[in-house]
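Private note to self, pasted from the team thread so I don't lose it. Backbone tokens:
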């Protein structure tokens, strides 16, 4: 991790400023296993407390650790009783069915390149590219992932690279211009790739700092 931080500070002055304000990187990782992916499905589109409550309730119902066999034994009514929507229940059943059938192999994921991991995981209903990228970053500990569809990363890149550049270029801004600034146009994947080029091979670590930069005041 120290090597990654040194590289980012050396290669990007904007990111260096962010790193110096935030301090050491403390990425938290989870196991690259079935339960972690099931948890990711349950957490989708829910705030932290609500998702945590449902996950604990579901774990108590199915038994922990979560396994494909335990999930497949549950009825739709039982899953709804734990707080899961019909859609999420179908996603979990699909994940369990494909894992039990050997179509999803968690043992092989460590050996696969990033692109193949994404293709392998997105065969499951409810697992999109973003969820697969989060699994790559926080379960498989891949250091060079750039989730171009992530709202937080896009927002942070706009704030620190695109919007700040306009502010520096136009310090004589009028009140009208300041109003226009509120209409944010988030960067495209191509813009993000270009800005993040110098972060390689540690784009995951750079993204962690960008997420953290949204939680604190970065001047």
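Design output:
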């Amino acid at each position: 991790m120290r090597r990654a931080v040194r590289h980012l500070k050396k290669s990007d002055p904007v990111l260096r400023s962010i790193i110096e304000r935030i301090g050491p990187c403390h990425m938290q990782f989870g196991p690259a296993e079935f339960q972690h992916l099931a948890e990711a499905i349950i957490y989708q589109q829910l705030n932290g407390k609500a998702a945590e409550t449902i996950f604990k309730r579901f774990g108590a119902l199915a038994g922990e650790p979560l396994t494909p066999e335990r999930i497949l034994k549950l009825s739709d009514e039982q899953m709804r009783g734990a707080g899961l929507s019909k859609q999420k229940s179908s996603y979990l059943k699909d994940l369990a069915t494909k894992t039990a059938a050997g179509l999803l192999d968690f043992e092989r994921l460590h050996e696969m390149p990033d692109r193949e991991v994404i293709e392998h995981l997105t065969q499951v209903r409810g697992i999109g590219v973003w969820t697969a990228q989060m699994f790559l970053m926080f379960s498989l500990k891949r250091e060079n992932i750039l989730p171009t569809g992530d709202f937080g990363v896009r927002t942070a890149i706009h704030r620190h690279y695109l919007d700040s550049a306009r502010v520096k270029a136009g310090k004589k801004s009028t009140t009208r211009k300041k109003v226009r600034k509120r209409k944010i146009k988030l960067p495209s994947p191509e813009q993000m790739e270009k800005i993040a080029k110098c972060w390689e091979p540690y784009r995951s670590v750079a993204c962690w700092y960008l997420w953290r930069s949204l939680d604190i005041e970065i001047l």
